[in-house]
Recover the amino acids of this structure.
């Protein structure tokens, strides 16, 4: 039952994200557009590039989708609506997200095309920049909750949501989650203006549909992770818990899409420099401050 | 079920625009409002949208792109002449209403012809002839499941990426493989970086029979040194396989028609080759151009700035001594400046697309279309919107960080237009025009000469141009042809030169005439000098930075081939 409800919720979330993305790229609002685009992709030819590494080419979209789904599986929408309440939940989110890199490298290498290949390696560069900024803020969240259980993390925020308790961690995690989902301004692996859709360039038809779906799932998963880690998960007055959870996830997903709409893509060297010279020291500071606050009993 | 699927497909149209979205916008076409999405690659498109008449080079690219599109696919032609060999699904006039009408036709066409039991293979002649035999396709759930050999290969309109590895043969990195012993099958190497992938190593000691990805497990470290010893070296000393990758002529982040071949060393640029669209229409026919024909040929040369080029031709003919239907001097200023506003906004939209700045792309495009559509009063209405756009762009620190220090140009005598003025060189053909003198025109300059300064200069010029249009108090017409009707007289002879400051810089037209006919035409378009600078400017830039540099120069490929 839980699985069905969560699945439906995820689908609704993906649809909303796709709708907003379509609105932002095309400039006009069409409620049926994502559905039509999905059908059109499934009904279209799907070809394999001329000399592909077939295994990598075929596996990559499925792997990307799986990574997103695995991350979503441990994130609760309400106290009872969680697929697996894993004892190492917070760590598991991070572990699942590691496969995004693998999927994109495979998708880049697989089709044997220059755009895709450069795009795949570009994502590797991006991972070097953002990966510590996913792990270190999660560490601080776990320090406060004294647990890696995602449900316990939500309960630990009863007094103060983590966005207020550790705002620095929130900002870093939020920026890093944009980078994980390769959303603008971190869309270097699928940049239209630089690599004509990059890793997506050689995928067509149903395979492209899976690849794009994977990215949408990733966006919803990261929005859910942000909600659980920083926005008090299902907590809130009046509405039932699942409604609060869903509202927050959608709001975070929408903000993630909108943020990139108003910003240009970053240069790789700047991204690396800012993440390592500024981001990581700030994340360390965040861990230290949270540690002190926890010791002080705040 | 099939019909239902087709109807859904016909409502989700994703277009590859030829020559490009910039040209479509210059014709006043609003693609998003018509329900079209823009595809970044032909692989993702199901509509090939042809805007206007295509020069030969782009007609070839259209064929190749069509071959690369996935079925069901259709072609919509806005204009009169279709490239030979392209199956046209729908045809309409070159206007917004024509676009809407054409899309309606195309949707109906999709429903009728989207899937067919029997399909003919479409093969573009430009695709590599030997590749037709080993194309691989698998059709997912379609009734027309025949493999189409034209997918996934070849030169692909110089847009896609496939040809890149295949075209390695020439650049010398093969020498390195000699150290392996007797390789006999080098033509087949596709992934040169991937030394596990060599399928034709016949004489490898200890490596016989390994194929694909089994890996060179037993290869010692020394062998790797040998393998890479003859590879080209980057400035940092790393040996890398260099690949030649085509960007354009239909690349989303470059002006439509501009075609760059970048030699990539990893993801930095080691070499550049630029190709543009030759001005074939300026070759005089037997007996020379009649003035009406010349006027048409020059005006149609650059669809991005038709007004400037028409004025250029009119001025050149007038200088030859012909009586020409010239608008008043004030009106010329208004026309030129309005075109400058539209052109700079179009450039901002391209910059937005290139740098992934969605808001800038959409907002600038909207304003450009409004500017192209509206009458004189509307430009003043636009003033506020332009000021807001300018403020938002100038305040955007990330954009500034992205563009600062990129593509710094040295002062050179050959520079013209905004690029020169951003190098603190006050070069502007408008200063010699008395009509501008009456309006107290002074060219704007900036120092710094990088991409950010070029952006700022164009923002300054936007404001200046709006003010100039307002100062002319010209009663503009919103009709399609702002020029007075009539054809130039045919009684003239001799030589004459005319100059117009187009939005990209000075264009110079030199005409030689005898007996009322123009026998020689020499055009110096504004972008030609800049094209020569590209190799120097882009060398060792990261790929994204290199493309941003090119974009910041605002090159027009039309007629720029020397």
């Amino acid at each position: 039952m839980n699985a069905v409800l969560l699945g439906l919720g995820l689908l609704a979330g993906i649809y909303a994200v796709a709708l907003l993305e379509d609105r932002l790229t095309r400039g006009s609002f069409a409620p049926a557009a994502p559905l039509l685009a999905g059908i059109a992709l499934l009904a279209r030819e799907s070809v394999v590039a001329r000399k592909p590494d077939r295994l990598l080419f075929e596996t990559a979209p499925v792997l990307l989708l799986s990574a997103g789904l695995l991350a979503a599986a441990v994130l609760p929408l309400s106290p009872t609506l969680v697929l697996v309440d894993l004892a190492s939940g917070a760590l598991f989110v991070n572990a699942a997200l590691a496969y995004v890199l693998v999927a994109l490298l495979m998708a880049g290498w697989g089709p044997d095309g220059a755009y895709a290949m450069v795009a795949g390696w570009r994502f590797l560069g991006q991972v070097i920049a953002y990966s510590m900024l996913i792990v270190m803020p999660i560490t601080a969240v776990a320090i406060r909750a004294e647990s890696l259980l995602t449900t316990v993390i939500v309960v630990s925020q009863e007094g103060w949501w983590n966005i207020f308790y550790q705002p620095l961690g929130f900002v870093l995690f939020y920026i890093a989650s944009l980078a994980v989902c390769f959303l603008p301004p971190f869309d270097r692996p699928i940049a239209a203006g630089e690599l004509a859709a990059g890793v997506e360039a050689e995928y067509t038809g149903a395979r492209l549909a899976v690849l794009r779906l994977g990215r949408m799932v990733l966006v919803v998963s990261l929005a859910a992770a942000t909600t659980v880690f920083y926005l008090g998960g299902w907590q809130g007055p009046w509405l039932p818990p699942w409604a609060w959870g869903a509202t927050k996830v959608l709001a975070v997903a929408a903000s993630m899409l909108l943020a990139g709409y108003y910003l240009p893509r970053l240069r790789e060297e700047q991204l690396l420099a800012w993440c390592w010279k500024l981001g990581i020291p700030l994340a360390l500071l965040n861990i230290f401050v949270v540690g002190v606050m926890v010791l002080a009993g705040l | 079920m099939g019909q239902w699927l087709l109807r859904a497909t016909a409502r989700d149209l994703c277009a590859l625009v030829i020559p490009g979205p910039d040209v479509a916008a210059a014709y006043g076409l609003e693609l998003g409002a018509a329900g079209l999405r823009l595809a970044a690659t032909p692989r993702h498109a199901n509509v090939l949208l042809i805007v206007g008449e295509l020069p030969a080079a782009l007609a070839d690219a259209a064929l190749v792109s069509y071959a690369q599109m996935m079925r069901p696919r259709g072609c919509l032609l806005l204009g009169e002449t279709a490239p030979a060999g392209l199956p046209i699904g729908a045809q309409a006039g070159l206007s917004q209403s024509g676009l809407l009408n054409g899309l309606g036709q195309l949707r109906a066409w999709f429903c009728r012809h989207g899937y067919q039991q029997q399909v003919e293979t479409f093969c573009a002649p430009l695709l590599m002839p030997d590749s037709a035999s080993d194309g691989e396709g698998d059709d997912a759930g379609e009734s027309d499941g025949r493999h189409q050999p034209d997918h996934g290969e070849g030169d692909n309109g110089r847009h896609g990426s496939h040809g890149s590895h295949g075209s390695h043969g020439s650049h010398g990195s093969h020498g390195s493989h000699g150290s392996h012993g007797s390789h006999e099958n080098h033509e087949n190497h596709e992934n040169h970086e991937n030394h596990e992938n060599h399928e034709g190593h016949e004489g490898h000691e200890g490596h016989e029979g390994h194929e694909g990805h089994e890996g060179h497990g037993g290869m010692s470290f020394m062998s790797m040194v040998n393998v890479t010893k003859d590879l080209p070296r980057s400035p940092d000393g790393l040996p890398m396989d260099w690949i030649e990758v085509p960007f354009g002529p239909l690349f989303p982040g470059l002006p439509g028609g501009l075609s760059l071949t970048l030699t990539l060393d990893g993801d930095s640029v080691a070499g550049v080759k630029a190709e543009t669209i030759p001005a074939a229409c300026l070759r005089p026919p037997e007996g020379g151009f009649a003035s009406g024909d010349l006027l048409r040929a020059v005006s149609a040369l650059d669809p991005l700035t038709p007004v400037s080029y028409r004025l250029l031709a009119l001025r050149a003919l007038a200088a030859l001594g012909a009586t020409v239907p010239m608008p008043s001097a004030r009106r010329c200023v208004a026309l030129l400046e309005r075109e400058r506003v539209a052109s700079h906004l179009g450039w901002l939209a391209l910059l937005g697309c290139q740098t992934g700045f969605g808001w800038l792309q959409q907002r600038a495009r909207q304003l450009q279309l409004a500017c192209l559509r509206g009458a004189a009063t509307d430009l003043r209405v636009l003033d506020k919107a332009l000021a807001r756009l300018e403020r938002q762009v100038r305040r955007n620190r990330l954009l500034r960080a992205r563009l600062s220090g990129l593509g710094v140009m040295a002062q050179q005598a050959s520079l013209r237009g905004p690029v020169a003025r951003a190098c603190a060189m006050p070069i502007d053909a408008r200063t010699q025009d008395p009509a501008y003198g009456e309006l107290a025109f002074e060219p704007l300059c900036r120092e710094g000469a990088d991409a950010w300064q070029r952006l700022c200069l164009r923002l300054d010029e936007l404001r200046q141009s709006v003010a100039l249009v307002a100062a002319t108090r010209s009663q503009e017409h919103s009709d399609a042809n702002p020029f007075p009707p009539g054809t130039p007289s045919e009684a003239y002879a001799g030589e004459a030169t005319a100059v117009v400051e187009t939005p990209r810089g000075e264009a110079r037209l030199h005409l030689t005439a005898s007996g009322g006919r123009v026998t020689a035409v020499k055009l110096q378009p504004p972008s030609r000098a800049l094209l020569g600078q590209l190799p120097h400017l882009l060398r060792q830039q990261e790929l994204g930075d290199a493309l941003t540099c090119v974009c910041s120069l605002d090159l027009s490929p039309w007629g720029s081939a020397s």
Remarks:
- Chain B touches chain A through 71 residues (CB under 8 Å).
